[in-house]
Known about the structure:
The protein is an alpha+beta fold. 45% of the residues lie in helices and 10% in strands. α5 (104-118) runs parallel beside α10 (254-268) and α7 (145-159) packs across α8 (165-177). It is globular. The two termini are 24 Å apart.
Amino acid sequence: MPWPTDPIAAVTHPDPRDYYDDLTTRPLHFHDGLDLWVAAAPDDVVAVLTHPDARVRPGAAPIPPHLAGTTAGQAFAGMARFTDGPSHAARRRTIVERIDSFTPSAVSDACSAAAAAMGDATAEEWMAQFPAEVLARLLDLPLRLDEVVAAAEALAACFGATGTAADVEAAERALGALPPEAVPFLFQAFDATAGLIGHVVADHDVPAVHNTRRFFDVDATVAGCDLVAGDRVLVVLVTAGLPFGTGPHQCPAAAFATTIAGHAARHIGPRAEPTGYRNLPNVRVPEWSPEHP
């Protein structure tokens, strides 16, 4: 089987493990096809993620262009996931405090109640719906569960780089009904936790979150390479064994998400080989056809 053409193509490749193993031996380098620097060697991954000049958004474009002038854009700009510096630290503290308020017994009860509501759902329905249903209970959201799931899906599509006008419109409707504190939880849960559930079910597979990006607004020396202002780096988390990242943007909900994934996986049970993967540039989410449940 041919190797992936690049680290983004590897996310949906049937078996990218040998490719990733090879990538770990390559120092920080520029990929002409992607027009990105690629950090894949473990030390380089850590060097980028902990560099003081590495940003999660370019300074000239704090929100994606398709969100400019929208309520969704304001929500995007207010999320810890997409900010740096003191504002990020303050927002992150709020999220961590909320996660810490979820006691083990409350999480277990929410998972059990959500599982009971799933009934005989398919594996893909478990991955798409279960995390949102658990969060709906923990956050006591004033919405029907189908509305919570739809809101999570709308936010994930809208905040992505390929979000369309229709995605923005759907997200605007969702934001009008959601408490602000729920937005980062539902956004993060939709793809990332779905991928984590799929990874636990298909335990031979590689981890869920494969890469992230960092932007440099100033010239900087990183892992022995001279980057210039405007350079972008694709950080391959999976090759460094850091699916939850490291540094100031390390995922604060790793244990929480893993607990949710474990509950879902126990109910889903054994699966056949995935028939494909959701078309995403950074998260590996398995898919199963109805013929291969």
